[in-house]
Design a protein that fits this description.
The complex is a heterotrimer.
Chain A lengths: L1 H28 L4 H10 L5 H12 L5 H13 L13 H36 L4 H15 L2 H15 L11 H31 L2 H8 L4 H39 L4 H11 L2 H29 L7
Chain B lengths: L18 H23 L31 H37 L1 H15 L3 H9 L6 H28 L2 H8 L4 H37 L11 H8 L7 H21 L6
Chain C lengths: L8 E11 L2 E12 L4 E4 L6 H9 L6 E9 L2 E2 L5 H7 L4 E4 L3 H4 L6 H12 L4 H14 L15 H15 L3 E5 L7 H16 L3 E6 L2 H7 L2 E6 L2 E7 H6 L4 H8 L16 E12 L2 E12 L3 E5 L6 H9 L6 E6 L8 E4 L13 H11 L4 H10 L16 H14 L4 E5 L7 H18 L2 E6 L2 H7 L2 E4 L7
Parallel strand pairs in C: 3-8, 3-9, 6-7, 7-8, 13-17, 13-18, 15-16, 16-17
Antiparallel strand pairs in C: 1-2, 1-4, 4-5, 9-10, 11-12, 11-14
Helix pairs in contact in C: 4-5, 4-6, 5-6, 6-7, 13-14, 14-15
The chains are: A mainly alpha, B mainly alpha, C alpha/beta.
């Protein structure tokens, strides 16, 4: 268990490293005076920008060796000093704190919704392989997996918001605003998790231990409850670590599409505006959110499966 | 259930060309014909505007209608399909070639090469791929370069890992050891023993990577950080037409449906049978 | 719980099992009575396991049974699926093959025994715990109730499975290959345990490929071949004086009954090693081991599983490097004259190549012509129709003979047979060894064999090297 946490902490370190270095290069690659841009990002709008740029120029030297500059910039990240947006001049840490709420609400409700949809359908399909639930959910999964999230989102907007008028097409505030974006993400996630669950149940159904559980006389509901569920849950939950990638990527797209003021939305706008400190802060936040989800998944699997882990 | 007499039970051989693969290949064929032949039938420039025909419905002049600038939807969709497929193919080829070769090398030699490659893939995988692509896009928003680089950087890892794991699995088997003892060399083992075993999974993986690339490029274009109008990129077209949803709902849906059919065709054509 | 019902007899008559139109098992008839257990002997693929599942009512979907199976007058083939299922555990229990795979890997043993009391007999949690403890204590697992299956040895898992059947209360017990995957010492323990079941008044039907198990269990023995019961009678009669051809071949294939054979005096050493040591992780497999194999000699390495038998052979072949010690080969021999046979014949052939492809590539590589291969095929009793099949479409015995043929084409001086017949039925095992012994006699081949079967080693080898039992971690 220590090893699991340690591995994920290492990954978090790598996220900081990759994002930090890329943004370091980015800030120097963009046209214009890098010192000016760094100063604006670091001290915010209140500072005397020309003077601050001079300070930056002297401090970083910009003539100092590159690795010293990178070290200084990563050191700043390590102190959780994310600086200021060069567009709005606001403190990025404070912006992120506000945006994080929206992002967590969206990703959390999408995840819960997908878990309510995917695994139960997968369980039914896996228990009756070749039945109509199996075939129907397979067709549904193939269709959903072929739809890019923005097309799926648009379809949901067209049907539920414009045709039926059930939910607002965009906005943020109430649960009704959240319904369509969360459903967009959840359908994509459930398309995969239902198949993973179905295959996991099918795999458990083929095991000698399940045959023995039946042959020792247990009634079918007991067999399913005591022997199928837990064993099939292990691959489904461990697959969630991979699905976290889809979730994070989907959040970026869906927030932008539905105009939800979350971190992903801010990231896309920062990229368009080339607001490097903001790109760095939002990418970092999304990357670390991914690591946290993956770590929770690891711990859940560890708790469910008593067998010794192979390294 | 494991029954020792399983060999007595007659088995039915499964054909490679399953109905789903047949449907997928047919669908891809139709889409290829549309993308390649469509522009020949109507020789129009995809950026040529005819404001009089703005949002024209399907008809004799414009088979699939015209967009808000009066540009032929058919030509723009055909070019869009070419563009999506072409960019995805280039990206996946760039990712697959080094990925497969390095995977084979790591499985065969192991040692420091494998450790370095594993470290590189761990570093790149620490961040969800789309975030990496987004940061790279900040260097030059609206161009294909960073998209291509970012996607290839993310996708090669999957090729590398799958090749390494499957090839290492094959190489560990007794028949490889037996083949070496019988005097065969490395070339024969890689060509005749490893390649046939890993080819099917690599084909499936390539189709999967193509789907990922097509979806990623169109999605990023749809959120305005990928390719931008007037390039006939399918994702950008959807967003461009969205304000005219009330007048021409079909026009908005057409590019989306085309992306869907492309990815669906790829998925079906390489689907392996469920057990 | 009331005292369990004890049955008097199980009668099987005219049993046939078919898959669609094809009949795959036919003419099975026998009676199993109190105190006289029945053992069905046969190779894998002979249909013996299907008979067990027909009695249990657990044939795979697509298979159907005809005929009559009656347990104290009750027709087991009749009845709805629900009625059949209601008998599982309560009336008939199956002892699964490879019990370490038949126990739920994520549930403690206590739970897996206890749930039978709780859900089959509807006991409360206090009673369940008491009963579960006494069931486990009876099979000597009283202190392992909180263990997960991966924390138990193979023999302990076998006993845990027996505790489950005791909990369920069944009086007809079907043991399906109960000794599969167990080494000799554990095998005897299982047989003793099964005899106790008979003494407690349970009906016992055992399915096995192991003649020694059939002999030790006594009672009645049936021999199955190609889906038919070809001989049935009292154990001593069937095992000592079988009447049917296949039964005779099967009984004669027991290594203890093989005729002895002369070997010319052994020549100079082909390969020798001194002071070998190998560690596997923390555990020392062997230290200071000297081995040498001489021309025209058969040497066997025996010992319990996990003691490093195979590693010794692989070190001699140069496939594994020893931690200490040196291997020396006789001078002037090409590397391809040192060959190996594998435990699992299909694994030793590329799965997607037909036998013709892999043989053809070998002949081309070494500039040999087909005539030589075809001549050997005729001598080894391998038909030409096998050439166009893939390894998984050829039987294990035939494939192992192809593996020998392939090795002998390169005129080897040293052949390492790593458990080469442990997955084969006794008749195939005898065929394979006949070919190997001939090669040793006629070509002066040196054969190093690794086996866990002491009887086989004693019969075939001129020298036996016994590796010590490893201290269990």
């Amino acid at each position: 268990m220590k090893r699991l946490v340690l591995a994920r902490l290492l990954q978090a370190g790598l996220v900081v490293l990759v994002v930090g270095i890329l943004c370091f290069v980015l800030v120097r690659a963009l046209p214009g005076d890098p010192a000016m841009r760094i100063a604006a990002g670091r001290y915010g709008p209140d500072a005397n920008i020309t003077e601050a740029a001079e300070v930056v120029r002297r401090e970083l030297g910009l003539d100092q060796p590159l690795f010293v500059q990178i070290g200084a910039s990563l050191g700043q990240l390590a102190r959780l000093d994310l600086g200021h947006s060069v567009v709005t001049g606001l403190s990025i840490a404070r912006e992120l704190r506000i945006q994080l709420g929206a992002t967590l609400w969206l990703s959390g409700s999408a995840l819960v919704l997908s878990l309510l949809l995917g695994p139960p359908i997968g369980l039914l399909a896996g228990l009756r392989r070749g039945g109509w639930v199996d075939n129907g959910s397979l067709a549904g999964a193939i269709v959903l997996r072929s739809l890019p999230p923005f097309v799926l989102g648009l379809l949901l907007i067209l049907v539920f918001a414009m045709l039926l008028g059930l939910f607002p097409p965009a906005g943020y505030g109430t649960w009704r605003d959240l319904a369509l974006p969360a459903l967009t993400l959840a359908l994509g996630l459930a398309a995969v998790s239902s198949r993973v669950a179905r295959d996991a149940v099918a795999a458990v159904a083929r095991t000698p231990y399940l045959a023995f559980a039946r042959l020792k006389g247990l009634p079918e509901p007991v067999v399913v409850r005591r022997h199928v569920l837990r064993n099939a849950a292990i691959p489904v939950i461990s697959y969630l670590a991979l699905q976290a990638i889809y979730l994070i990527e989907g959040v970026v797209v869906v927030e932008t599409l539905f105009g939800i003021p979350g971190i992903g939305h801010a990231l896309v706008h920062a990229v368009i505006a080339r607001d490097v400190p903001m790109v760095q802060g939002t990418a970092l936040a999304m990357g670390l959110l991914f690591v946290v989800i993956a770590m929770l998944v690891d711990l859940a699997c560890h708790w469910l499966d008593p067998r010794p882990k192979r390294t | 259930m494991s029954i020792a007499d399983a060999t007595l039970v007659p088995i039915t051989q499964r054909a490679w060309l399953t109905p789903s693969r047949r449907a997928g290949i047919a669908l891809l064929g139709v889409l290829a014909a549309f993308a390649l032949l469509g522009p020949l039938l109507v020789s129009v420039d995809p950026t040529e505007q005819d404001l009089a025909a703005s949002l024209a419905p399907s008809g004799a002049d414009y088979w699939l209608g015209a967009d808000h600038y009066g540009r032929s939807m058919l030509v723009r969709l055909a070019y869009g399909a070419q563009l999506s497929f072409g960019m995805a193919l280039l990206t996946v080829a760039t990712a697959a070639l080094p990925g497969i070769l390095l995977g084979l090398l790591a499985a065969w030699r192991g040692g420091w090469l494998e450790r370095i490659l594993d470290l590189a893939s761990t570093v790149l995988l620490a961040l969800p791929g789309l975030l990496l692509v987004l940061i790279l896009l900040a260097f030059a928003p609206g161009t294909f370069g960073p998209l291509y680089l970012g996607l290839a950087l993310t996708l090669w890892i999957e090729f590398y890992r799958v090749t390494r794991v499957t090839a290492a699995g094959v190489l560990r088997q007794p028949h490889v050891e037996a083949t070496q003892l019988l005097g065969f060399g490395t070339g024969y083992i890689l060509r005749s023993l490893v390649l046939p075993e890993i080819a099917p999974i690599l084909i499936t993986l390539s189709a999967f990577a193509m789907s990922t690339a097509i979806i990623a490029i169109s999605t990023l274009s749809a959120i305005s950080v990928g390719l931008r109008p007037p390039t006939p990129e399918l994702g950008a077209m959807v967003v461009e037409l969205l304000p005219y949803y009330a007048e021409a709902p079909l026009h908005v849906l057409m590019p989306g449906v085309l992306i869907f059919l492309l990815v669906l065709g790829l998925q079906l054509a390489t689907r392996s049978d469920v057990r | 719980m009331n005292a369990p019902v004890r049955f008097q007899s199980l009668t099987v008559s005219d049993l046939a099992i078919s898959a669609g139109e094809t009949t795959i098992v036919r003419d099975v008839a026998f009676t199993l009575a109190q105190g006289r257990p029945v053992t069905l002997l046969g190779a894998s693929g002979s249909g013996k396991s299907l008979v067990a599942h027909a009695i249990m009512g657990s044939l795979p979907t697509g298979l159907s049974a005809r005929g009559a199976i009656t347990l104290d007058g009750e027709d087991l083939l009749a009845g709805s699926p629900a009625q059949i299922r209601a008998r599982w555990g309560r009336t008939i229990a199956i002892l699964p093959q490879e019990p370490w795979l038949a126990l739920d890997p994520t549930m403690r043993i206590a739970g897996q025994v206890g749930e039978v009391h709780q859900y089959l007999h509807g006991l409360g949690s206090a009673d369940t715990t008491t009963r579960m403890r006494s069931d486990l204590a009876e099979v000597g697992l009283g202190d392992r109730a909180q263990a997960y299956p991966h924390e138990l040895s193979g023999g302990m898992c076998q006993r845990a499975a027996i505790a489950v059947t005791h909990a369920a209360g069944a009086s007809l017990l079907i043991a399906d290959e109960p000794t599969k995957g167990l080494d000799a010492a554990l095998r005897d323990g299982v047989v003793t345990r099964l005899r106790q079941e008979v003494e407690q008044g349970r009906l016992l039907l055992t399915i096995t490929h192991d003649i020694a198990v059939a002999g030790a269990l006594g009672g009645m023995v049936g021999v199955m071949h190609d889906g038919a019961l070809v001989e049935f009678g009292p154990a001593e009669q069937v095992l000592e004086a079988p009447r049917h051809d296949y039964a005779r071949a099967l009984i004669a294939a027991d290594p203890a009954k093989w005729p002895s054979f002369p070997l010319p005096a052994a020549g100079e050493a082909v390969v020798s090693a001194r002071g070998l040591a190998k560690r596997f992780g923390e555990r020392a497999l062997f230290e200071g081991l000297d081995v040498s194999v001489r021309r025209g000699e058969i040497v066997a390495i025996v010992g319990p599983s996990g003691c490093g038998k195979t590693t010794v052979g692989n070190i001699l072949l140069g496939l594994v490097a020893p931690d200490h010690g040196a291997v020396e080969r006789a001078a002037g021999l090409a590397p391809t004259r040192f060959q190996k046979l594998y435990q699992d014949p299909p694994a030793a052939f590329a799965p997607h190549q037909t036998v013709r492809q892999s043989l053809g590539d070998l002949l081309k590589l070494h500039g040999l012509d087909w005539a030589r291969a075809e001549a050997s095929m005729a001598r080894f009793g391998l038909g030409r129709e096998l050439l166009d099949r893939r390894p998984n479409e050829v039987s294990g015995g035939e494939l192992q003979r192809f593996a020998i043929l392939r090795a002998l084409l390169l005129d080897p001086v040293f052949l390492f047979a790593d458990e080469a017949t442990s997955r084969l039925d006794p008749v195939s095992q005898k065929d394979v060894f006949a070919i190997l012994i001939e090669a040793v006699r006629e070509r002066g081949l040196s054969l190093l064999m690794v086996t866990h079967e002491t009887a086989l080693a004693e019969m075939v080898a001129r020298r036996i090297l016994t590796l010590g039992s490893p201290e269990n971690p």
